[in-house]
């Protein structure tokens, strides 16, 4: 059973709970990094907590905020994270195939529940192709100046 990390801010709480139900039905072992309240909160702390766990386990995660933009910005500050804000199933499939994304970002205020579920399933069900794509991923983190 694969462990999957999930976190949100106040805007993503309702969608997170819906996704958790679907993920549990699929048999995932879920680790919820918060928030657990609809009170206004700061999204970076939840993104950083999830990303630290994903990096430590070489795992995968899902981040949710109002648009998905803030979470993706915070997540991509981590060298071992390749977070992708996906608004379609095609985005989710291609970011897994070509970018080996390990964190899916969703916007609860801009993506309906059924579409979010479809995007999540596409993300989780698609494998990385490797090959020429690995060479490009290896170039994502800046190299020290010589």
From TrEMBL:
Keywords: Isomerase. One of its GO terms (molecular function) is ribose-5-phosphate isomerase activity. It holds the Pfam family LacAB_rpiB. The active site is at 65 (proton acceptor), 98 (proton donor). The keyword Isomerase applies. This is Ribose 5-phosphate isomerase B. D-ribulose 5-phosphate binds at residues 9-10, 66-70, 99, 109, 132, 136. One of its GO terms (biological process) is pentose-phosphate shunt, non-oxidative branch. Belongs to the LacAB/RpiB family. Its EC number is 5.3.1.6. Signal peptide: none annotated. It is an enzyme of class 5 (isomerase).
């Amino acid at each position: 059973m694969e462990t999957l990390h999930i976190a949100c801010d106040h805007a993503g709480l309702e969608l997170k709970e819906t996704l958790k139900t679907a993920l549990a039905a699929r048999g995932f072992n879920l680790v919820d990094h918060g928030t657990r309240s609809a009170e206004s909160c700061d999204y970076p702390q939840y993104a950083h907590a999830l990303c630290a766990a994903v990096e430590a386990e070489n795992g995968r995660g899902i981040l949710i905020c109002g648009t998905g933009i803030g979470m993706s910005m915070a997540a991509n500050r981590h060298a071992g994270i390749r977070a992708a804000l996906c608004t379609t199933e095609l985005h989710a499939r291609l970011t897994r195939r070509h970018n080996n994304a390990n964190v899916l970002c969703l916007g609860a205020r801009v993506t309906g529940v059924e579409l979010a579920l479809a995007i999540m399933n596409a993300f989780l069900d698609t494998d990385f192709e490797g090959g020429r794509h690995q060479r490009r991923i290896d170039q994502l983190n800046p190299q020290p100046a010589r």
